[in-house]
Amino acid sequence: MGTKQHTVPASFLKNWAATDEGRNSKIYMHGIDLSNVRISVENVCHQRDFYTPDREKDNLISPIEGGFISIINRYNAMAACEIMEGPELLLDIFYVAHLFLRGGGFINYTEKERIDLIDEWMVDFLRSVFMDGNAGGNDLQEIGHSLIQAAKSNWCVKIMEVRGDELLIGDDPVLSIIGASDHVAFILPISPNRAMIIFDVRRIELVSNIIEAEVCALMNGMTAAKAQRFVYSRNRLTEEECATAAKVIGKYTMTCEYENGKIKTMDFSADEIDRLRIWRRRT
Question: Which of 71, 105, 226, 234 has the greatest CB tally within 10 Å of its CB?
Fold first, then answer.
């Protein structure tokens, strides 16, 4: 990966590019002090030695980055409103979990090399969120076997299409939804025109196949509020849209910390997310 290590892969951000030039594809960047800056996806969402300055350790993360590309391509090829269940969902969960853990508190974590924390945090996160804390072993391979069964019975992915507007993407892109007891869903924009929702079928039921313009605007507000520094768009935003995004960027801070041996995460509440009107809670 080299010294320039991305917090959000360029291969993912390329879906928001206004031009098609591979990693040199141009995207619009918006922040508190910057508006409508056109920049290549290769030159955003990165930090020198983000994971580690050790090149040998750095090579450990490269296969994960490479695997993301095939997953992103599969998302783009899926039909709108298509639902995915079963073992294939395992890759989706790992991908979203990696993006989720890279954001927020992880970006600001400096006490230990982040690359040494990735597997440790992933094991705790996957066990506590997707498997209700019930999985033996402290190895990702062992967790993976248990996760296949948990995903097959309790979680699924749905691709939703946006109507009448376009989604923004942030430098901390995964929106986590907290229910009465724990996470019930994760929303990840995968292009300006579609998003994927990983949800717990025991706790919510999706009631819409379309993200209407009003819901898209709310999701964009959440994305901007959760961003560390910048949000990105495919098309140039108006001055009013830039001003609105600038007011909320960085206003929301996600914490990611250990509590009683498990990762404690704070994110958007299910009460607030009910405004999206794309699901109803199961009782």
Answer: 226
For residue 52, what are the contacts with CB-CB under 8 A and spacing of at least 6? 58, 113, 114, 115, 116
Residue with tokens 């993407």: 169
Of the candidate ranges 30-39, 172-181, 255-264, the one whose mean pLDDT is the lowest:
255-264
Write the Ramachandran bin of 51: left for phi over 0, alpha for psi from -120 to 50, otherwise beta: alpha
- Judge whether residue 46 has pLDDT over 90: no
Query: Cβ neighbours of residue 57 under 8 Å, at least 6 residues apart?
Result: 51, 113, 115, 116
Return d(Cα 69, Cα 72) in angstroms, integer.
Answer: 5
- Mean pLDDT value of segment 38-56: 78
CA-based nearest residue to 235, from 152, 188, 168: 168
Q: What is the mean pLDDT of residues 36-46?
A: 86
Contact status, residue 170 vs residue 220, Cβ threshold 8 Å: no
Distance CA(247)–CA(82), nearest Å, equals 35
